[in-house]
């Protein structure tokens, strides 16, 4: 009976991991690790890849790259993967100082773009006549310029947007995700799936070229 049998290593790969440019990607960056206490630190520090500029800002690492390195560190180790078998590593460049001019430009673009969209919608459905008729039904008098009603309606649009998006500047009313956050999450999921498919296609193509040579 061997006094020190090879341990079992449980690996749960993350879906997407940000890494600063110039850092070496280790197993601790891309996976949650469960093993014998004496091996957890060496496993977390196990180097997987050193991103280069020509690799781009997205790298795909899968278990077929990780398993040989783990077995090299711990000969005979039994590896038990949990969950997905690949992880996307996003190489993040040093953040630049935000430009106030660019911020103001984007803010003005969004502000006037939203205002024009709302005004064009109101013009298409003849909202002014609807408001005039609504005030006439409520008061019994026809007012061609129901400013009080229009002012309340304008504040109602703003309040409704705040409630709908569950956001006021950085404050959220509850932990429920906003529709925009859900759409951004689904968009990011689709992007990740596309990138993974393309990276596997590149790996397969390079492997076929290697077999031919």
Automatic annotation (TrEMBL):
The keyword Membrane applies. Residues 8-94 form the Stage V sporulation protein AA domain. The chain crosses the membrane at residues 101-121, 147-169. Keywords: Membrane, Transmembrane, Transmembrane helix. This is Stage V sporulation protein AA.
